[in-house]
Amino acid sequence: MIITRQSSIRLLFSLLAVCVGLSKGLHLLQHASSIPRAHFVIYFPTFFILETLLCVSAWVLLFKCTGLKSILGTAVTVGITFLSYILCASQIGFYLVTGNEIRWDAAKAAGSDPEGVGLLLSGLKSFMGAASLLLTLSWLLKNGVYFVMNHWFSALFSSPSIETADAEGLLPSSPRKASASSPIRLWTIMAAVTVATLRLTRPQVPYNHLSGAIPFTFFQELRASPKQGHKTGEHAFPLAALVGEGHFKVWAPGTSDSKSESRAPPAWSSGHLPPGFERWDERMPIRQTGENDTLGNQTTPSFYSPMDDPLRITNLDQEILEPLARALKDHKVPITHVILVLMESARKDIFPLKAGSHLHEEILSSYNTRNPKVLQGANEKLSSLTPVAEKLTGESGGFMKSQTISRSQATEWENAAAPGMGGINIDGILTGSTLSFKSAVMNYCGTGPLPVDFMVEVKAKNYQPCIMQLFDLFNQLKENSTTNNPRFQRPHGGLESIHDRNWTSVFLQSITGLYDDQDKLNEKMGFQKSICREQIEEDDAKHFHPGMEEINYFGYPEYEVYPYLRDVVNNTIKNNERLFLSHFTSTTHHPWGTPKDYPVEQYFAAGGLMAKHEDMNQYLNAVRYVDTWLGDMMKVLDEFEIANETLVVFVGDHGQAFNEDAPVSGTYENGHISNFRIPLLFRHPLLPKLQITANATSMSVVPTILDLLVNTGSLNEMDSTAALDLMNEYEGQSLIRPYQATHNGRQAWNFGIVNPGGTMLSVGSAAVPYRLILPLNEDFEYVFSNLDTDPNELTPLRGWSLDELITSVQRVHGDKAGTWLADAEKVGKYWVEEQKRRWNYQ
C-alpha cells in the first residue's frame, strides 16, 4: 500500500479529530448521570468549543497554508496531534482499568519518581490497546472527516473545494457556489451566536470542568498549582455554640487562646528531648526550622493543643472496659514488645471473609445458578481464604470447612491462646487516608494527615511525636533517671525485668523503600533501622540468594524478609532489648501478583464473565497468600517464646474498591466506602477476646497502645507518667475504654483524605450513620450516603452544589440528615484549614 502525502495529512487531521472527540465523549460519559438531562442537552454544544477551535486551527495550518507556513503549520499540527494521541490513549487506558479519570499532575508525580515508573507501566497493555483503536478508527474515517470538513470550510468562505472545482469547472466567484454556501454560512453564524450565548450564561460548576479539552487540560494541570480550593474565610470553628471548656490533663506551650489554663510543663520534659518533642523543649526556639521553611515563610510555627481543639472528645476519663479490667486484675499481661503490621489494601470484609457478606454474595452470584453442589464447591474454596484472620480476630467466617485437609491447612498457624482470650478486635474503623503513607503517618503518629496532594508531610514537621519517638523518650528517661529525676524510683516486682530494657525500633518490608520518599519518612518518624528491597537485594546482603523473584513493580514477596524477621527477633532477645517492629505487607497491592509456584484459585465462576472479575480474583489470591504469611509471622513469635509478651497490632492502610463494589475501582480520587473500611486488631494471647464496635479512625492506634502499656504495668513509673501525659495530647480516643460518640452536643467527627490528598475529603461522625464526600475543588461532586440503609454505598446521592444535595437528602432521608450534611460541610472545611495550620503549611 502506497501512502501519499495527501493521505498522510488526512490521517493526521483525522487522528486529531478522533482523539479530541473521543476524549471529550469519554469525559462527558463519566459525568452525564450527575447533571439534569435537560441541562445536559441544552449546554451540550458548549462542551465542544475548544475541540472545534483546535480542529479549525489545524485545518488551516494543514490545508490553507503554503510554502514555509505550510511546513511550519504541519510541524505544529504533528506535535499537537501526537500529544493528543498519547493523552487520549492514556485517558482511555486508565478508564478501562479503573473506571476513573486520569489527572495529569498525578501522572507526572508518579512518573517523576523512579520507583513510580513501574506503576505507570502496569497500564501499558490497556494503553497500547487504546492507541491501536484510535489509529485504526482514524484511518477508517480519514476520508470522511476530510470531506465533511472541506465541504463546510469551502462553503463557509464561498470558495469551492479542489474536488468540486475540478468536477464542475466552477470559479470561486460562481453565483451557483455562492448560492449553495449561503445557508451553511447562515447556519454556522447562528450556531456560533447560540453557543456563545449559552457559554456566557451557563453556570461555572460543573460545566467549566466538563468543557476542558486535551491537550489544554494537560498543560493547565501541569502549570497550575494544586487546587486546594473552598476557602473557609475566617479560621474559626463553625459550630461555635458547641465549643466548651477542656477538662482533661494537658500541657500547652506558649500562649493559648483557650479560657482553660494549661498546667506546668511535665517533669519528664526537663533536659534534652528526642526529635518529635520540640514543643515541650523550653530550649527550642519558637520559630520555623529550615525544614519547615520550604512550606511557608512563617516565623512562629503553630503547635497542636488539645485544649484548643473543638473537635477533640476524650474518653480517658472513662474506666477501662470491664472484661479487660477484670483480666488485668486477675493476672499479669506483660507487653515487652510491640509489633505493628500495616496491611496493604486490607479491606475489613476480608479480615476475615464472612459468609453472607456483600463480597461473598457477589462471588456466588457470578455462578448464576442455585445448584447446591456448585455453590458448595465455591464455599469450600472460600473457607480456606482467610483462616489465620479468623483465628486472630476470633470472628468465624461462617463457612462449612472441607473434610479434606490440604497441605496449607496442615502447616497452618495454630492459635495457642486459651479459650476466651486473644485480644481486642475492632469493627467500624475507617482509614484516615487512602494514600498509603498518609495513612502510615496517622497510624504511627496519631495525627491527621495533611489534606494536600502527595506526601508533603515528608518535608513538614509532624505536630505530634510518633510512637517510635515515644520509645526513644523512654530510653532517654532511663539514662537520665538516676541523676536528673531522682524522685522516680524503679519498681520492684515481676515486671521489673522488662522495665529497665531499652527499646529498639525496626521497619521491615520486602518492596522498595524509596517510593514516595518512604525512606525519608521512616527516618523522620523515628525508625532506628529499615530493611527494605534495597537492602535485601544487595549481593552482600546476609540472606541474599540467586533467583529472588519479583512479583510486582515494587519488589519481592513477603517471604523474602522472613529470615530478617527471625534475625530481628533473635537479636532483640540476645541484646535483652524491647522491640518495636513494624512490617508493611505488599502483595495485596496492585497488580496483586503472587509467586509463580503459588497455586492460584478460581473463586469466581469461570467463563465469559470472568474477565469482569479478574482483578478481584487476583486480589483474593493475594489475600490468601498474605493470610498464610501472617500466620508464619506469628509462628516466629511462638518459636522464640515471646508470643505471651508481645502485643501485635494489625491495621489496614486503606481498603480497595473493585468493579464488584463501585463504578470506579481503585483508591485514586475514589471516595467509596470500600476504600475506607479497614481491620484493626490488638492481639495478645493473655488479653480477653473482645469484639468492639467503634465508628472511629486509626488515629486511635497510638493512644490505645500507650493505654495498654500503662495499664498492663509494662512501663516503669517514670515512663508511665510520661505516657499518661502524652495520651492526653493525642486527638484519638483509646479503644480499651468506652468510645464516646458525643459529648455535650458535640460529635466525634471522622475525617479521611481521598488519594492523592487534596481533591476530596471523607467526613463522617460516630454519632450518626451519615457520610459526606466533600470536594476540595470544583472538579468533583458532593456525595452523601446513609450507611444504615445503604451500607455498601450502592445508591449514594450526588450533587454539584451543596444546596442541590441537601434538597435531595432531605427528600430521601429527612430533615435531620439534611441538617447534619450542612454541618458536615462546614466542619470538613474547617478541618482542612486547621490541618494546614497544624502542619504549618501555606
UniProtKB/TrEMBL annotation:
Provide the alphabetized UniProt keywords.
Membrane, Signal, Transmembrane, Transmembrane helix
Is Transmembrane helix tagged as a keyword?
A: yes
Q: Where's the Sulfatase N-terminal domain? A: 501-709
The record, for Gene3D superfamilies, names: Alkaline Phosphatase, subunit A
What Pfam families would the database entry show?
A: Sulfatase
Q: Is-annotated flag, keyword Cytoplasm?
A: no
Q: Where is this region: Disordered?
A: 253-279
Q: Which InterPro entries did the record assign?
A: Alkaline_phosphatase_core_sf, GAG_Ulvan_Degrading_Sulfatases, Sulfatase_N
Residues annotated as transmembrane: 41-63, 75-97, 117-141
Q: Which residues form the signal peptide?
A: 1-25
Task: Read off the SUPFAM superfamilies from this record.
Answer: Alkaline phosphatase-like (SSF53649)
Query: What's this protein's name?
Result: Sulfatase N-terminal domain-containing protein
